[in-house]
Amino acid sequence: MLWEEHPLLNSLRKRELHGECGECALKSICGGCRGRTFCLTGDPMASDPYCMRPVQL
Ligand code: SF4
Prior knowledge:
Shape: globular
Oligomer: single chain
Helix content: 40-55%
Order of helices and strands: HHHH
Bound molecules: iron/sulfur cluster
Distance between the termini: 38 Å
C-alpha cells in the first residue's frame, strides 16, 4: 500500500532529515516544517530555512 511503503513517507516517519535538522537534538519532537521546506528548497528532507531555535543544542 502506498501509504505504508512509499520511500519518501518512510523517510519522513524515520526523520531522515538533512543538514541542521538532521543533526538537531530536537528533530524527534520538531523536525521542522516539511511542507515549507519542500516549497522553499525543492527537497522535503532539507533543513527548515525558518528554524526558530535560537542556538544549536
Ligand atoms: S527546525 Fe530547527 S529546531 Fe526543528 S528540528 Fe530543524 S533545526 Fe531542529
